[in-house]
Write a structure and sequence with these properties.
It contains 2 helices and no strands. It is mostly helical and 145 residues long. The chain has one domain.
Length: 145
C-alpha cells in the first residue's frame, strides 16, 4: 500500500461510518413514521367499528320504539302515561349508551395516538443519539489521525 492510501484510510473509514450512521438515522425516522401510519390505520378501523356499533344501537331503538307503538296501537292504548314513559326511558337509555360509546371510543383512539407518538419519538430520539455518537466518534478519529 502506498503512503497516500494509508494516510487516506482513516478518512475513508470515517466517511463510511458517517454514511452508515446517517442511513441508520434515516431508517429509524422511517420506522417512526411507519408506527404513526399504522396507528392512523388502526384508528380508522376503530372509527368504522364504532360507527357500526352506533348504527346497530340506532336500529335496536327504532325497532323497540316501533314495536311499542304498534303494540300500543293494536291494544287501542294512547301514547300517554306508562307506554310513553317506557319509550322515553328507552330513548334516554339509547342516548346514554351512545354517549358512553363515544367517550370510550375517544379514549381508545387518544391512547392509541399517544402510544404511537411515544414509540415513534423514542425511535427517532434513539436515532438522533446514535447519529450524535457517530459524529463524536468521527471527530475523535479525525483528531487522533
Amino acid at each position: 500500500m502506498g503512503a497516500g492510501v494509508a494516510a487516506a484510510m482513516p478518512y475513508v473509514a470515517t466517511a463510511l461510518t458517517a454514511a452508515s450512521g446517517y442511513m441508520q438515522y434515516k431508517e429509524a425516522n422511517k420506522a417512526g413514521d411507519g408506527i404513526m401510519a399504522d396507528a392512523e390505520r388502526y384508528i380508522d378501523e376503530e372509527e368504522l367499528r364504532h360507527n357500526e356499533q352506533q348504527i346497530s344501537r340506532r336500529e335496536k331503538i327504532i325497532k323497540a320504539l316501533a314495536a311499542q307503538n304498534a303494540g300500543a296501537g293494536a291494544r287501542g292504548i294512547s301514547l300517554s302515561g306508562s307506554p310513553i314513559n317506557v319509550m322515553e326511558f328507552d330513548q334516554k337509555q339509547y342516548e346514554m349508551e351512545s354517549l358512553s360509546g363515544r367517550v370510550s371510543h375517544n379514549m381508545r383512539t387518544s391512547n392509541i395516538k399517544e402510544q404511537a407518538r411515544n414509540r415513534a419519538s423514542g425511535i427517532k430520539r434513539s436515532a438522533q443519539i446514535s447519529l450524535l455518537d457517530t459524529g463524536t466518534r468521527m471527530a475523535s478519529t479525525m483528531i487522533n489521525a
